[in-house]
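Review form for a predicted model. The reviewer records the input and the model, then writes brief findings.
Reviewer: anonymous (R2)
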Amino acid sequence: MRNLLKIGLVANIFEWYEFAVYAYMADIIGQLFFKSETSVVGLAKAFTIFAIGYLIRPLGSLVWGTVGDRIGRGRPMKTVLMMSAIPTALIGCLPTYAQIGFLAPALLLILRLVQGFAMGAELPTNGCYIFEAAPSKYKSMLCSIVMASTKLGYLLASLVVFLLFSYFNRETVLAWAWRIPFLFSIPLIIGIRAMRRSIQDFPVQKAGTFKSAWLSLKRSMLKPVLIVSFTIALSGTLSIWTSQYLIHFLNVPRTLAWASNAVFVIASIAFKLVAGYLSHAFGYQRVIRVSVASTTLFIVPLFALFQHASFGILWVLQMLLGCLQGSITGVLMEMLARQFPQFVRCRGMNLAYTLPAAFLGGITPLVLTWMTDQTGFLLFPAFYILFFGLLALPSTIRLKAQENGKASRSAGFCARGANRA
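Model under review:
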C-alpha cells in the first residue's frame, strides 16, 4: 500500500508540476520566444506550441500502451517518468528569441514534442497500474488519489509562479527569473529516479491477436472518449486557462488571479477524494452521472458571475468550480479501467484518455484565447464547456456496471503477481 501511494500520489505530483508550469508561464514564454505585436498574440503563440505538444500524445499512448499490455505496466511507467521530466529542466536553459531568433521557438517545440510523447502514457498507465494492483476495497480511493495528485502538481506549479511574481517584478522575470520554475524540476528529477524503485511489474494476461485487441477496443471506446472529452475541455478551461482569462480579459490583478487559482485547485483536490469515497459507496456510474449533469447545468451561471466578481466572490466561484471539476475527474481513472478487459486495458485507457487530450487539451487554451479576443463574448468559455457536457451526458447513462466479483479476483491475481515480483 505504501508503494501504491508513492506511485499514485508522489510521482504524479512531480510530472504534473512540469506539465502545468509551462501553461502558467505561457504569457512570459510568448514574450520571450516569439516575435509578437501584443501580449495576447504572444500568449496565443505560446499556447500553439502547447497544442502541438499534445498532438503527438496519441502516438506515445499507442506505443507505451502496447508495451504495457505485452510486458507489464511497470516498465513503460519508469521510462515515461524520466522522458517527461527532463525537457522541463532543459526549457529553463534555452536561449530566447532575442538571443538566437527563430531557433528559440524551434528548440522549445522539440522539447515539448519529446515531453508530449512521454506524457501520452504517463497518467493512464499510472491509473491502470494502480487499479490492477490495488485491493478491491481500495480501488476507488486509490484511483481518486491518482487524479488528485495531478492537481497537487498544478498547485505546486501555481505556488511557484505566484511566489515568482510576488518576489520579482515583471522586468526581472523577463530578464532571467522566468527560468526558476523550470529549473526547479531538477530536484524533482532526482525524486523521480528514487520513485522508480517502488514500481514493480506483475503478470498480465496474454495480449491476444491484433484483431481481437482491435475489436475489443472498438466496442469499448466511444463512451469513455466522449466523457473524457468533456473532462479535458473542462479541465483545460478551468485548470489551465482561467487564470489567463482573469488577467487578460477581466483585468484581475495577476497575484489575485493566481491566488484564486490556488483556491480552485485545493477545492478540486478535496472533491476528487470525496468522489473516490462516494464511488466505493454508491458506484462510479452514479457519481460521474450526477457530476456531469450538475456541471452542465451550472457552468454558464457561474461564469456569468465572473464578470463583476469582487475579491470574495471570485474565491467562492473558483471554489465551486473546483468542486464540480474534482467530482468528475476523481472517478475518471476507475471509469476508464472498468470499460476495458485486462488484455487491452493499458492501450484502451491510454487511447481513450489521450485522443481527446491531444485534440482538445492542447487547443482549448488557444481556441478560448482567440475566440474570446475576436468576439469579445466573455461567456464563450462557459458555452464551450456546455457543448461538450451535452455530448457526454448520454454516455454517462450507459456506462458498464461495476463488477465487484471480477474486480476482486483481478485484484487478487495482480496482488499475488506483485508479491512474486
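Findings: The two ends are 15 Å apart (CA to CA).
Further findings: The domain at 2-199+214-420 is CATH 1.20.1250.20 (Growth Hormone; Chain: A;).
Recommendation: see findings above.
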